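TOKENISE THE FOLD
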Amino acid sequence: MSIIQQQDLIDSITDALQFIANYHPRDFIQAMSAAYQREQSPAAKDAIAQILVNSRLCAENNRPICQDTGIVNVFVKVGMQVQWQADMSLEDMINEGVRRAYLHPDNVLRASIVADPVGSRTNTGDNTPAVIHTELVLGNKVEIDIAAKGGGSENKAKFTILNPSDSLVDWVMDTVPNMGAGWCPPGMLGIGIGGTAEKAMLMAKQSLMEAIDIQELIDRGPETATEKLRVELYHKVNQLGIGAQGLGGLTTVLDVKIKDYPTHAASLPVAMIPNCAATRHVHFVLDGSGPAEFIPPSLDDWPDITWQAASNTRHVNLDTLTAADIQAWQPGETLLLSGHFLTGRDAAHKKIADLLSKGAPLPEGLDFHNRFIYYVGPVDPVPGEVVGPAGPTTATRMDKFTELMLAETGLLGMIGKAERGQQAIEAIRKHQSVYLIAVGGAAYLVSKAIKQSRMVAFEELGMEAIREFYVENMPVTVAVDSRGQSVHETGPKLWQQKIAEIPVKVEPV
């Protein structure tokens, strides 16, 4: 029998979440480094470079990899011979650990959890509660897998129930292109097969806790049906040419993980959940000897690369930019932005829309005329920082507001991540606006370009408030130009054609 102290569990949860906020797993660093070495698409290679440089900077400075520090997922296996020395429930202990992690005075993590999800959607302020799954097992230890799952990748989770005779491969290949780039590829695909609806989703999430090992599997050769399916999907998904950030390239997934479970003879439940470029998870065990310890990866694990803009990069002064200037920008072109822009995302857009619908004025000092808006919810700064990690959020959530913002506020353009839907693209074309993307998964690197920050409106929204940033040489890519041409359509098509010319051995199931 092991006696587990309440404080040991709380401290372990706190330390684990602080650890995964700042450090990529070693296997992820290695897989992303390999993807960088083999990438032939300049845009995708640039994006991967930014992700890797960002990762190393975060490790060196103990700062979050991504501004979206995630919703906490915890899988707990409690040995039946474990005895607890505690006056709190298991769930309460875990949530106390989460609370302390996200409110840590030396590295406050962004609180993203809202209560009353179909009502007031009020931020809980400490990122609790976590989503907790508990299993009783044999033994005298407590084993925990913990992850911080970003909203951009979580929002792309998919589920279906196929007929037993249907092709799972066909469903995946039809589904992945429609997921867009909001999940910030390259990442992992977790797939759960069988059981029931909720079991399949749970297995898909659990599979993402496993180490990246697809290359080892390919090298030794797949043996089981599941292993063969993993290899087939890995090759075929990468042949789609979606690439890093959806810009087109050789690597869309770093691995495909699969868990399965017996299911009803009439059913084939299938769930698929992606992990983004901010993959964050860790495993630890408590045996009664004290809290878990977490050892950072060696800095030698990161590749020796630096990021710098190409010589033909266009330098843009946002403070003197005009509508005529942006007409010359081309899809896929790299820009370095300097000057002032405003920030805002879901909640701020809703407030603006509500005010405009009532004919009410915008808050004093809030003027979008001839300006850009950056879709971002930054992490709080620590001493010495202007702002914490401040990477882009998924722009498609703002599509419903795009026509309104362009037509009624004088907004010139937008900055976010991933593709825009047809509704937004049509508004961009109609108003001869433009949409730019920053690299999702490079939040700390982006924040280094932000030299000043001030509150402008809706301070009560916290990380969703509208701020004004002054930036110097912030790297972005033209995703949708003033004619409505999207690099997220042209890039993957081009690289899918190029990849088709590269022979790839696919193991059939």
Notes: The first strand starts at residue 2 and ends at 5. Residues 65 and 285 are 24 Å apart (CA to CA).
